[in-house]
Fold this protein.
Amino acid sequence: MKPLGPIPPGFSPIDGELAIAGRKARELVAQAGRTPLFVYSAAMIDARIAQLRAAMPDRLAIHYAVKANPFDPLLRHMAPLVDGFDIASGGELALVEAAGIDPKRVSFAGPGKRDDELTAALERGVTLNLESEGEANRALAIAERQGITPRLAVRVNPDFDLKGSGMKMGGGAKPFGVDAGRVPALVRRIVAAGAEWRGFHIFAGSQALDAAAISETQAQTLQLAAELADESGVALPRCNLGGGFGIPYFPGDVALDLNAVGAALTERFAALPPVLADTRFCIELGRYLVGEAGVYLTRIVDRKESHGEVFLVTDGGLHHQLAASGNFGTVIRRNYPSAIASRFGADVTEEASIVGCLCTPLDRLADKGGFPRADVGDLVAIFCAGAYGATASPAMFLGQGPAAEILA
Ligand SMILES: Cc1ncc(COP(=O)(O)O)c(C=O)c1O
């Protein structure tokens, strides 16, 4: 048997069935009217944000990275809980606006922003995290044409990355941000052009579980921000320290020690150089806020054996949960946390693979895991599905279409 990833704390059975937000899986499926279904627990998101606020220094604002999960009811739920939103496209701008979020609370990072996206963002007062000198030129030209004072920040490509992170976004040649050495000249030019100077965005990596590595990166980020502000000769109003707080997905992963990160950052904030004395700081997090609060529920439609192996064939698959199938940014395929939701907590009695309904061998949600015996009609739960699930998977592949989603 191959091990399964750790089920996040907070999920327990009611009458032998997985309960999410205090409600049984079958009841949630009945509410949605179908499987496959993503369920997001509002209470778990609330608890996570409260925990984060308690651990981090008050001076640190918390922004939500919409890319992790842009489901409208979830965005509306987040609106009063976080201090700002990070978007990555004009499409995400439309989603945050539709959710009633003030665009002045929004910043826009990401390479390849089109002119129409820059225009929409500038017109609404969104802060642009500029990814290049070319993008700065286009933003300034659009602002001049439209008679707008643009709100501009510079995304810095630092010379360091976030150690142990699943996705490195800094260090060396990268399509993200402006190489640190060229930043001061760009800042001076933006300010001279009459823009509202919003500060630096320094995002070194994503999905790290090592508190010491995150703290080290935050220390490097603060030092770099101070050096660049000094060299620019312009006060630094804001500094986005990035994020990178990870969640345990795989066997052996251990949860991030949030208090250790908070304590180290509190110490750093107490000893800031004068150039950062009045700077406002934030982090932007996606998966850490919503990842563990989401469960993907799919129904077993066939049970079969092949060469002595049991396959539980579901009505879901990688078209909704690409990451669980191991095809989204992982090199070695390992099992996500998963369970038979309709027999939650029952003893393990067999080895089975949970597969999807797509005709590709890639479509495997759990490989040779240990489960209680399950049959056609049983529900499967894939945990850690709250981030990079529904919108980071090829929902239209083979004409399957999207899963249902509910915030419970
Ligand atoms: C610029 C930026 N901000 C925020 C995030 C969110 O990362 P995570 O969901 O791991 O917190 C990413 C992820 O790639 C990113 O590129």
Notes: The first helix runs from residue 25 to 32. The chain has a mean pLDDT of 97. The longest strand covers residues 294-306. Residues 65, 68, 86, 109, 167, 169, 203, 206-207, 243, 284-288, 387 surround pyridoxal-5'-phosphate (CB under 6 Å).
